[in-house]
């Protein structure tokens, strides 16, 4: 018979927060199913008549009938005309069940692959959902021309109709690849054609593709030291071993790279604005690096993540545009220049890498969403992208000046700012004996996001301090955050 405790379990399910999003008949169905799975309702147990259960639960009879019908369709109960409903014989339910610990805090142990465990250990790459001063690499989105973007999107829907809802070419739409080629050739001095461009969701995906397709696990790759954590984590997740090469005011030390005892078939760098120092790789070193790559049949992975924002003169021609040997892979992204949720990045590839990289990309996520690609293509073709970048470049340059003044005014006893020639963040070196981690923890409690400089070094840190992003924050927001930081610094220097 259907016991009182079983009826109470069904009643409890109607009120359970996990079930509240479901209609009543599904709540009843799931409660009964769980009783059957737990063995609380053994095979051949008769269930109450739908009218009786409906009255007990204060619901309509149709609601109970719908629950019973679903349980019958799933094979959990049998229904016989004139005899009622019974719990069905389900062979799998007769198997001996393992005892599960009643301790809710105890979790089952899982066995990950070495690669999976490595990715878990390095904690992935996480961006702030809501920008907090001074999280780096985040653009200002409150000034983006949303109405214009929406109008262009409507044009795309009107012109492409249902084609805009279909799969994209894994390499990307020809419209966007053409727009990017024109832009990169004009603004970055690249040698790009639509056929050599691969559209992706992010520069992080591009780095992962390079790591997985150019080098085998256990291989070495030259990297800047300090370096962007996202690149380091992508390489380590693929089983590569980063070999750190020091950076000075002119970028990565190519002379030390060439002399290094460890051979490597690739180098990853951020030549426009070295992350995090902001240094620009000199033309001499760019040419020297290109010759090294050709002589050693190595690859240059050029991450040009925020080159649009250069504040002193015209940015140097990208390495890819100087490379006559096609040994350079150029990576660009629109998540920094436009807005993070656009989720569009790209690579300009040597001709021989287009097919293998595109094929590898199909195994990851297939393609990039069609409609944003077509909308972005029109945004670029109509001149809106260039106009917006010019507007943001002026704004960010002013914000950099403001941030430097704030640091020198309020934190001069603790930090020395090192204003870069471009980019979206400014490194500040600690000039006192304070613990980075302690400051970061206390700043987080004040809704301030700091990135430690020491965490960006592969070897023993040469500098300690913080990387302060400024692009996404108004003058007042930065001032208030700096004043909070001042109190934190003072409180820790007594």
UniProtKB/TrEMBL annotation:
Keywords associated with the record: Aminotransferase, DNA-binding, Pyridoxal phosphate, Transcription, Transcription regulation, Transferase
Coiled coil: none
Domain of life where this protein originates: Bacteria
Alphabetized GO MF terms: DNA binding; DNA-binding transcription factor activity; pyridoxal phosphate binding; transaminase activity
Domain HTH gntR-type as annotated: residue spans: 22-90
InterPro entries linked: Aminotransferase_I/II_large, HTH_trans_reg/aminotransferase, PyrdxlP-dep_Trfase, PyrdxlP-dep_Trfase_major, Tscrpt_reg_HTH_GntR, WH-like_DNA-bd_sf, WH_DNA-bd_sf
Assigned protein family: In the C-terminal section; belongs to the class-I pyridoxal-phosphate-dependent aminotransferase family.
Name of the protein this chain belongs to: GntR family transcriptional regulator / MocR family aminotransferase
């Amino acid at each position: 018979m259907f016991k009182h405790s079983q009826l109470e379990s069904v009643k409890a399910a109607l009120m359970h927060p996990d079930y509240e999003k479901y209609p009543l008949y599904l709540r009843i169905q799931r409660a009964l199913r769980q009783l059957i799975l737990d063995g609380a309702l053994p095979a051949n147990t008769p269930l109450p008549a739908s009218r009786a259960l409906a009255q007990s639960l204060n619901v309509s009879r149709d609601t109970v009938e719908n629950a019973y019908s679903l349980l019958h369709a799933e094979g959990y109960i049998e229904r016989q005309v004139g005899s009622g409903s019974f719990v069905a014989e389900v062979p799998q339910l007769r198997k001996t069940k393992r005892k599960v610990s009643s301790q809710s805090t105890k979790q089952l142990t899982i066995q990950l692959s070495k690669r999976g465990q490595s990715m878990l250990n390095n904690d992935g790459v996480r961006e702030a959902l809501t920008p907090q001063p001074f999280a780096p690499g985040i653009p200002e989105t409150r000034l983006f021309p949303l109405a214009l973007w929406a109008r262009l999107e409507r044009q795309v829907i009107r012109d492409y109709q249902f084609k805009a809802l279909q799969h994209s070419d894994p390499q990307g739409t020809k419209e966007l690849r053409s727009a990017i080629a024109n832009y990169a050739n004009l603004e970055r001095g690249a040698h790009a054609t639509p056929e050599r461009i691969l559209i992706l969701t992010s520069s992080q995906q591009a780095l992962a593709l390079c790591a997985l397709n150019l080098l085998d696990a256990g291989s070495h790759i030259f990297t800047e030291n300090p370096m962007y954590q996202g690149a380091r984590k992508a390489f380590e997740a693929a089983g590569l071993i980063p070999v750190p090469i020091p950076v000075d005011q002119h970028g990565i030390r190519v002379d030390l790279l060439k002399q290094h005892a460890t051979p490597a078939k690739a180098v990853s760098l951020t030549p426009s604005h070295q992350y995090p120092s902001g240094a620009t790789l000199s033309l001499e070193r760019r040419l020297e690096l290109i010759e090294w790559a050709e002589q050693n049949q190595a690859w240059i992975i050029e991450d040009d993540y925020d080159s649009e924002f250069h504040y002193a003169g015209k940015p140097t021609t990208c390495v890819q545009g100087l490379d006559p040997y096609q040994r350079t892979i150029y990576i660009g992204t629109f998540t920094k220049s436009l807005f993070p949720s656009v989720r569009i990045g790209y690579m300009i590839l040597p001709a021989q890498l287009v097919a293998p990289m595109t094929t590898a990309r199909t195994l990851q996520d297939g393609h990039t969403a069609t409609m944003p690609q077509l909308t972005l293509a029109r945004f670029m073709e109509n001149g809106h992208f260039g106009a917006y970048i010019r507007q943001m470049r002026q704004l960010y340059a002013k914000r950099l000046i403001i941030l430097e003044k704030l640091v020198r005014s309020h934190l001069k006893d603790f930090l020395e700012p090192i204003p870069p020639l471009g980019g979206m963040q400014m490194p500040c070196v600690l000039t006192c004996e304070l613990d980075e981690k302690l400051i970061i923890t206390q700043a987080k409690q004040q809704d301030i996001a700091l990135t430690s400089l020491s965490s960006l070094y592969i070897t023993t840190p040469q500098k300690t301090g913080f990387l302060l992003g400024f692009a996404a924050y108004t003058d007042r927001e930065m001032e208030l955050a700096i004043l909070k930081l001042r109190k934190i610094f003072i409180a820790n220097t007594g």
